[in-house]
Give the backbone structure.
Amino acid sequence: MSDAYSSNGFALDVRARFYMSGQLFCELMGHWGTHEGSKSVLQKGNPFDIDDERNTLLGVVGLGYEIFQNENQTFDIYIKGLVGYGVRSSRFDDYQITSSEDGHVTLGCDIKKKGIAAAIGLGMDTRFKRWTLTPSVDVFYIGNEWNVATMISFGFFL
């Protein structure tokens, strides 16, 4: 998350795909992501940490298309666009420097946004019999905020 003190986080997705043709699919996705970070600043010459926390939760549905498939369909590259509903919460401290050795901490943000959610993604499926390994990049829109998540997914075909 671009405005966070650390770029590390954790996300869990649950997805189901229903193929309508050899390359066109409908996808249902539930996404939960969380992030906690901190940074060290000085207060009267002494270091201390200020913290932030971000959480996202969404449910979306939409279409995807495999723009490239190899001959035996064990490898593909896809794009997708999904819409639905989501919630995003943000809370972080802010440090205001008032001199070289002084400063104060304020609550920089405590926001919860709900509303239309969207997910746009680009990924690559590699199939091993009934299992898949998928590196992907997803862009999420929730409550007038954008987030980017790079992910590695494991899947199973029924």
Q: What stands out?
A: Strands lie at 10-19, 24-43, 46-69, 75-99, 102-128, 131-142, 145-156. The chain is about 0% helix and 80% strand. The first strand starts at residue 10 and ends at 19.
